[in-house]
Design goal:
By secondary structure, the chain is of the alpha/beta class. It contains 9 helices and 14 strands. Helix content is about 35%, strand content about 25%. The chain binds S-adenosyl-L-homocysteine (SAH) and tryptophan.
């Protein structure tokens, strides 16, 4: 681990050359399966993060606006209910919505430390320096890492209640089993009777509304999806003909999740130089790049219960599109 300290900002960097490894492992694994698949965390290089910001501003992509509306209406209540002194945020990105919570904590006089964790180093550093400017006295302890592997590196809680925020519906990007395991690992960051999970989940709704959110008119989401292949080309010396892949997004009505895929327009052979690997694509063969699960109250409660958490308040926006929930650990969770 590499730590840099400057003023009120500490940044721990847990990703290094080994993480090209993680991409290499995921590509080797995912592209040699009977149904090709790559995990979504590799979307977010600098260009991917920029495209994601543009997605959040699209009229079709309602989750960001809906979650922001909930935070605008309820941040003060959340802070009053939890007494939050410390905010840990997983997949913090640009922390745009998080600022509403930090502001409410500051106004309540409880704000002490913010611990953002994200795979994208630039965003961690930029957000950290902006926030210590905006909130004199705030300590930001950023972690450049992977929340699937690096939760044990989140610093021990300080005095006062901790809230762990996992916003944007990112938890829905994991299939059900992995999602419950991840929630259980997150639960280990929480002290029973003291700390809280603040979880953002997108809700099941009209499939047309859902599908439009992941297949916008101007094609920004399509560009974001294809950018994954640019990442593989650059990092692993591959030769994907990126333009020869078509963006596919549909709502799986049985599983109640959105699936994003990339469909090869023609037969292709792709060379992944760094792995010495040749991958064949049949015409119209698809590569799955993301799922985004949509929640019912039952699914939310079921996942949290299975992870050792108890669901408390559930807040929604006026249109009932998105949910923000507070939950607490049910008992001391045994160490891993
Ligand atoms: N929380 C923000 C961003 C959501 S996009 C919002 O609500 O708008 C998902 C974010 O999670 C991105 O910033 C991405 O870089 C980060 N991310 C995705 N997978 C990750 C992983 N495995 N570990 C850490 N961060 C991850
Ligand atoms: N967590 C977000 C979601 O599932 C991530 C996301 C939004 C996303 N739009 C996307 C990921 C488009 C890939 C492509 O809604």
């Amino acid at each position: 681990m590499q730590r840099t300290v400057s003023g009120d900002v500490v940044v721990d960097c847990l990703l290094g050359p080994a993480d090209e490894r993680s991409l290499a492992d995921d590509v080797l694994d995912g592209l040699t399966r009977p149904f090709k698949e790559l995990p979504p965390k590799h979307f977010y290089d600098t260009r991917g993060a920029e495209l994601f910001d543009r997605i959040c501003e699209l009229p079709e992509y309602y989750p960001t606006r809906a979650e922001r509306a909930i935070l605008e209406a309820h941040s003060d209540d959340i802070v009053a209910r939890t007494g939050a002194a410390e905010l840990v945020e997983l997949g913090s990105g640009t922390a745009a919505k998080t600022r509403l919570l930090l502001r409410a904590m500051d106004d309540a006089g409880t704000l002490r430390r913010y611990v953002p964790l994200d795979v994208t180093e630039e965003m961690i550093r930029r957000t950290a320096s902006e926030l210590v400017e905006e909130h004199p006295g705030l300590v930001v302890h950023g972690i450049v890492g992977d929340f699937e592997r690096h939760l044990p590196y989140v610093p021990a809680p300080e005095d006062g209640p901790r809230v762990v925020a996992f916003l944007g519906g990112t938890v829905g990007n994991f299939p059900p089993g992995t999602r419950r395991r991840l929630l259980r690992a997150i639960g280990r960051l929480l002290r029973p009777g003291q700390d809280w999970l603040l979880l953002g989940t997108d809700l099941v709704k009209d499939p047309e509304v859902l599908e439009a959110a992941y297949d916008d008119g101007p094609g920004i989401t399509a560009e974001f999806n294809r950018n994954l292949l640019c990442v593989v080309n650059r990092e692993l010396d591959a030769d994907f003909d990126v333009g020869a892949f078509e963006h596919v997004a549909f709502f799986d009505r049985e599983r109640e999740w959105i699936e994003m895929r990339l469909r090869a327009c023609r037969r292709m052979r792709v060379r992944v130089g760094a792995l010495g690997l040749d991958v064949e694509f049949a015409p119209r063969e698809e590569l799955r790049t993301e799922i985004s699960a949509k929640f019912t109250p039952e699914r939310l409660a079921g996942d949290l219960t299975a992870a050792g958490l108890a669901l408390g308040d559930v807040l929604t926006d006026p249109d009932g599109l998105f949910a923000l929930s507070l939950s607490t650990p049910r008992r001391a969770v045994a160490a891993a």
